[in-house]
Amino acid sequence: MSAALTRGLAISAIITFLLLAGSSARQDTLTTDEDPHIGAGISYVTQRDMRLNPEHPPLMKDLAALPLVFIKDLNVPTNNKSWTEDLNGQWDFGREFIFYSDNNADLVVAVARIFPILITALLAWFVFRWTYERGGSGAGLLAITLFVFCPVILAHGHLVTTDIPAAFGAFVATYFLIKFLEKPGGRAILFAGIAFGVAELFKFSNFLLIPYFGALAFGWLILKTVNGGRSELRRLPVNFLTYVGGTILIGILGYLLVYVVYIWHVLNYPPERQMSDAKTLLSSFGSPFLADMVVAMTQIPIFRPIAQYLLGLFMVLQRAVGGNTAFFMGEVSATAWKSYFPIVYFFKVPLPLHIFTLIAAWAGIRHFGHIVLASKRPAELTRSFFQFAQKYFFVFASLFYIAMYWASSILSNLNIGVRHLMPVFPFTIMLASLGVAAWVKKIAPGHIAPLAQILNEFQTSPKAAIKLIVIVPLIAWYITNAVIAWPHYLSWYNEASLVRGGGHNIAADSNLDWGQDLKNLVAFTEKYNIDKIHVDYFGWAPPQYYLKEKYVPWTSDMGNPHGWLAVSATYKQESCAKPAKGFNRDTTKYCWLEAYRPQAIIGGSIFVYNLE
User: Fold this and answer.
1) Contact indicator for 186, 192 with CB cutoff of 8 Å
2) Helical H runs in 113-185?
3) Where does the pLDDT of residue 444 fall: very low under 50, low under 70, confident under 90, or very high at 90 and above?
4) Which residue of 240, 384, 430, 598 is most buried, as measured by CB atoms within 10 A?
5) Whether the Cβ atoms of residue 122 and residue 133 lie closer than 8 Å to each other
């Protein structure tokens, strides 16, 4: 298969993603975290003031808001209390801007989602490109297929949040860093520096790239020195400056970009207001010294952008320690479960991807096993291992990132969704695709082979044909999942979730119910001519904006209503579950609903009952 045809098929896959994600975006109501991001973004672009949502870097919000400025007669409510008086009044400001300022709410949300969709599509291209460069057309096309048809990526790839951008930043920055390590040069440093800066501007979790990049630079230096023999040992000082010094320069360039972007975001932020906000927001931070340092920096003009960046970083550290209330596997807790992310990842990721991952792991282990068996002496094995590690450095780098990010997620005290694992998805998909290609053709990752050559071998190799018979149905199953799940990607769980009676019995919140089905609830009331409906809604879109006079506010504290009742899955599950150890809130207020059969489950996230 020619390179042009391979790229053409990859572009076709991206176009398919744009259609699926774009149409799903039109169906979904504003989700919970989009409210503050859209509101903060329009305030950054129009006011150059970052008093809202400082706990996330600004780049995704800026990009989402840029198209909004072209909406005619757009009103930004900077006279509202949430802007003038409240401390970080991001939630109220976002809702005021979208729903209560004479703006077209659905148009604002739809336009704000343009750049998130484009960023996800660009990430899909990089996943294809890196996999194609290392494994050929077959691996590259498998990778982009696994990426664009993944329901989790389709769910979050059209939302104004920082999860997909975080994955974009980590993956693309790593791609360019490894390009630099393999072929140092000024251009490579520039691209890697820009990519690193973009990553840091997308999400604070990408702060992990600093130790990660340092480990990669030293790891590459060690491998190059050991494998190069005496000549490379003599060049060690030069190589140290080249690889370690170059990586440091990449970091400096990246943070220069961060600094420049943050300058814009404090230009009209009054210094006294910035100081007051920082002082209050960091009042409970673990290190009073660091908190006081940030507060002091707000009063020094050249340091104000740095102070705003550090404020956000420290706020994230505070929240990661603080935890949140969540439902998981029949329990409710305000602290994290160590099993949360592994179990949620298993149930939220398509089963074919799990199978591909196992195949790739087997292919990698088997290939390394051949190296071990071929080595007759320990010294020879050591030398072969170091050569193997340098040749497939990008594989070890990817595995290291996956392990590092998984460890930080499991140790975190935040359990609110598989979306927080999003940065591992592109790395996992790339490695799985390379491993499957290696297994099918019995080659090592990194060997570029035309797809036509692989297909020709199937005609003469029964084993390869059998493997193809295994792979093709798995791909078809994978794609079918995405088609059937449309447009309700956010609430999708894989087939294994049926053992728990459905995904709502595993985990809620952004895994299932993020307020996305409010407009679909409206359509349900119209279809069945419902005049009044009691609604306990988990989300920040105001139900009365869509339901109008049909809406009757309801909560679990109000008992049993008469008539129609709609309850978001998150509230329903949290109010009929077992309290985890140390959780003292009543978790039985909706258990009476167990005696009723829901009339419908809207989009998988809103349970509707007729209690007449």
Assistant:
1) no
2) 114-148, 151-156, 163-182
3) very low
4) 430
5) no
